[in-house]
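Local shape tokens

___
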Amino acid sequence: MLSIWRDWRRKCQANKLKDPDYKFLFSEPQDDNVYVCFDCETTGLNPKKDKIVSLSAIKIKGNQVLTSGALNLLIQQEGLISPESIAVHRIRNVDLQDGEIEVLTEREAIGRFLHFIQGYPLVGYYLEFDVAMVNGAISDWLGVRLPNRMIEVSELYYQQRLKEVSQSIAQPNIDLKFDSILKRLDVPNLGQHDAFSDALMTSLIFLKLQQPR
């Protein structure tokens, strides 16, 4: 029943698509063993008013993270990036005005991102926020929201830990902080929380959670 509902919802979305050049978003993936992990850095934490500053996406195929083909994008900003956001990702407005690096318009960047992800499932940590940011960029332009299947690694981790501790603890307290998950799964912490590093670490978390326990 769930798959029928999902297919019906995708069909309704596809009918609202304003640009037929992006029909590929609603096509079945060419390889069901490929996933795309992505992460955004933004001007703030409100998807209704904030903008994407940088975006990185990495494909995962089988048990490999394909870093050599990763997508790394910087996006022009009309408004000011908040000091709180700069403290996290260390990208200032002036950094996006340097002629030595490629900085794209929002539509150029999101267009590249959509061609990169195609119809593949999306993987992320706090994925709902990143998807909401992309949806904010495409809703008026394309008239749709991302139709891709979403995989939240913190949910996968929670379900795995729940199985491990539920027999001994009635109401287990499972720490879902990103750094805590990295430590528990013995995934290297790269330290710098930029879009690429976060996407890479999340990809490694996803692979670790796929391994037999």
Notes: Strands lie at 34-42, 52-61, 64-74, 122-124, 150-152.
